[in-house]
Write a structure and sequence with these properties.
0% strand; single chain; mainly alpha; 217 residues
Length: 217
Amino acid sequence: MTLMILEIIIVLIVILLSMTIHEAMHAFMGYALGDNTAKEEGRLTLNPIRHIDPVMTILLPLIMVVLHAPVFGGAKPVPFNPNRVRFGDWGAALVALSGPITNLVIAFIAFGFGVFSGVINNAGAVRPTIFGLIISTAVSVNLGFFVFNMLPIPPLDGSRILYAVAPDGIRGVMQKIEQNGVLLVMIIVVLFSDVIGQVMSGCIRAILRVFMNIFGV
């Protein structure tokens, strides 16, 4: 029971830090590309309170922890005006991709730190210590956020790549879907949880194999 409480506390801290950086990177990238919408609404910040969504940032990831499923979730979307950013649809895609790519980088750094500190051994296993739990949580949570947010489902970040290449008719449908936002994502997660879990687990394992090859473990 104590271990479960400790794990939940570590997961919550990692989620708050990871999603704060994720959303802040959306804001900073949009601002760098000429859109000041996020700045006007107070989202150009590393303050977690400005980015937290009670359901996506806290409740959903905790449910995944309890179910021992891949941890994923999101935060309150950073507003941006795709008509203001440079490079058109591709600029909007850069704004969207900056968040999940940041999670991938955090996972990579955490994994590397785990290897060099000896927490992750030559077999890729994590030592059962508190520090090992922090490292493994940082890796798994950020990989979960990366894979989940890259799913091409509006309003997830991965859908912005489709916006950049899809014809106008498809974009119109995607815009209508996006209006339902978090509710639609939650419905999809509930209805297709097994499929999403399998896809995410497979992607996470593949990424971990790449990490292991890079760091020689």
